[in-house]
Design a protein that fits this description.
about 210 residues; alpha+beta; NADH Oxidase; 5-stranded antiparallel sheet; 7 strands; binds flavin mononucleotide
Length: about 210
């Protein structure tokens, strides 16, 4: 009786293990996602769920950040009419996106002067904002790919003129800059990732 019970427990454990390894096999590894990502500029027009967008933004916010200031801010537009109105003049690809994520960075931070713990905090420039926000944007592109969606980084900073109308209509404050604008959606194209492996770009041990 005891042996039978042990055998059935072991069988149940084996099934659980098999199920786990199967579901892991279905998941793409981080390296697979990185190597398979490519810019997508054509979308079916289907919406992207709030749940997926929050997963994507969570990945963005998991990026490294100098002094952990986390200067990233995101404006997410999902309303079809608004997407066409705000981004449609920039490029036609936006009009078929399910959502648009505007990756912004707070360029200043409230900080006490160094070595003066009793002094009041004042607004000081955060010179690392665009590095942090670039890391967040890349995480966003990878999360999009991992969810079977597509996206492309379109330029913002430092070409501020190009995005000034977007900043104005979205009400983005003065000390917040647009790093990039990312249309996200169900891909309507399936380009092969570019092979960018160039060993000549590497200098082992010494340039
Ligand atoms: C800083 C930056 C700005 C970019 N700006 C644009 C843009 O304005 N429009 C666009 O279609 N793609 C833009 N891209 C996407 C690049 O064209 C694309 O990443 C590059 O051609 C490599 O292709 P891949 O992303 O498929 O690997 C930009 C990418 C970066 C990193």
């Amino acid at each position: 009786m005891k042996t039978l019970r042990t055998i059935s427990i072991m069988a149940a454990l084996a099934v659980m293990l098999l199920c786990t390894s199967n579901s892991q096999a279905q998941d793409q590894s981080a390296l697979e996602v990185i190597m398979a990502r490519t810019s997508i500029r054509s979308f079916t027009g289907e919406p992207v769920s709030r749940e997926k967008l929050e997963t994507i933004l969570k990945a963005g916010m998991a990026a490294p950040s100098a002094m952990n200031i986390q200067p990233w801010r995101f404006v997410v537009v999902t309303d079809k009419e608004k997407i066409s109105k705000v981004f449609g003049t920039r490029s036609k690809m936006f009009t078929t996106a399910g959502a648009v994520i505007v990756v912004c960075g707070q360029t200043t931070v409230m900080r006490k002067p160094y070595g003066q713990p009793d002094a009041p905090a004042t607004e000081t420039p955060n010179m690392f904002w665009y590095e942090d926000c670039s890391a967040a944007a890349q995480n966003i592109l990878l999360a999009v790919k991992a969810l079977g969606l597509g996206a492309v980084w379109t330029a913002g900073y430092p070409g501020e003129q190009r995005v000034a109308p977007i900043a104005e209509v979205l009400g983005i404050p003065e000390n917040v800059k647009i790093l990039c604008v990312i249309p996200v959606g169900v891909p309507a194209e399936n380009p092969n990732p570019k092979d960018k492996w160039k060993p000549d770009n590497i200098h082992w041990e010494q340039w």
